[in-house]
Amino acid sequence: MKQSAQANPLSLLPFIVFLATFFLAGMITGDFYQVSMLIPAVLAAITSLLISKKISLSSRVEQFAQGAGHPDIMIMVMIFLLSGAFSAVANGIGSVDSTVNFALTYLPQNMIIVGIFIIGSFISLAMGTSVGTISALAPIAVGISGETELPTAITVATVVGGAMFGDNLSIISDTTIAAVRTQKTEMKDKFKTNFFIVMPAAFITIGTLFVITLGSTSTVSAESFEWVNILPYLGVLIAALLGANVLAVLLGGILLAGIIGLTTSDYSLMKFMEQITSGMTGMAELILLTIILGGIVAMIQNNGGIQFIMNALSKGVRSKKGAEASIAGLVSTTNLATANNTIAIITTGQLVKQISDNYQIDPRKSASLLDIFSCTIQGLIPYGAQLLTAAQFGEISPLAIIPYSFYPMLIAVMGTIAISTNFPRFKTSS
């Protein structure tokens, strides 16, 4: 996609229409997830076609289609499809239940809250979905609060923290996929960079949870579990850490989960196929949004919108650190408006890539900053899916969870420190 030589602020109107429509719909309905994000996306797409340069409509549509069908967009679509299929099949054979019960079996009762954070971190890292992790663990967290003197807000906030750990790091998380593809880096390289930035936040969270729950015990009992059902998650994690191609990792995970299901439980080939289909179709809205936003970004770029923002940023940004801070602010602000960290990354990714190129920011760092600060906002906004889901299980207000959302807060601190100290220092640019 070519960058326009002439800056044009009017070209940003589709982006404004997208954010304003989504935000207003959420305010009017009182539920930011009641109105599909496809509606503001389509309105923004129409706007981008109407305000484009004075060329024929067919030429404008062709420009839009080229952006929507960009190779990076199509690779993201393939990964989203396989990610949805893997999560559905692994969950279908009982991998989530086995992982939870395995951890509950071996965790000391006086460290159950710390254990819930660790369980949530592992499951979200393996599943690649924070909402799915919260849905699986929140009922257990609520049960723990009922058997101890711990407030429900603490226990469900702990689940949210663990869920955001994997959302930020998992190789099959849609946020991570979007960050890696938009910044044109490798998944394993982004994982390593991101890991070193946020791990102190995880350790501080564990220490904080241990101190504030000291003396509390729980009598939550674990159910029986099958060791073999945990293998698909372990296989995906190990293969990813070894640097295998993400598409190959996901295909292997789907096949491994299917083989385990077919050989160890009441599971049929037809059910295996149905779950693959269900997992893929469950990603349909995200895929459509990704394609439409790809076209919108192309139109904005072709008509000078990206250049306008770059010119505006160059006036206030004087250093590499300033550019990294602008990346953090840009994705955070967008996430506040969209209440969806994946869409925030996809929406801002192209601009962030240009900022990174202009200021020689390593793509591993820019991808990590996109993911870290979007996950911070997503784990703290009371109208986001994560806190709404946790609050529903706990029968409390989402606002009550925020003071105990230690991990989302701490990764923002660690991200800020990484910006101010130029951490990590790369020997070579990838």
Walk me through this protein's architecture.
- With 430 residues, this protein is mainly α.
- The protein contains 21 helices and no strands.
- The longest helix is centred in the middle third of the chain and has 26 residues, at 187-212.
- The protein is globular and about 70 Å long.
- Mean pLDDT is 87; it is low at 1-5.
Which helices and strands occur, and which strands form pairs?
Elements: H1 13-29, H2 38-50, H3 57-68, H4 71-92, H5 95-106, H6 112-127, H7 130-147, H8 152-169, H9 174-183, H10 187-212, H11 231-241, H12 246-264, H13 269-281, H14 284-302, H15 305-316, H16 320-338, H17 341-358, H18 363-378, H19 385-394, H20 398-401, H21 406-420
Helix pairs in contact: 1-2, 2-14, 3-14, 4-9, 4-12, 4-13, 4-14, 5-6, 6-7, 6-8, 6-10, 6-11, 7-8, 7-19, 8-10, 8-18, 8-19, 9-17, 9-18, 10-18, 10-21, 11-12, 14-17, 16-17, 16-18, 17-18, 18-21
Protein name: Na+/H+ antiporter NhaC family protein
Transmembrane segments: 12-29, 73-94, 106-127, 194-214, 234-262, 283-301, 404-423
Keywords: Antiport, Cell membrane, Membrane, Transmembrane, Transmembrane helix, Transport
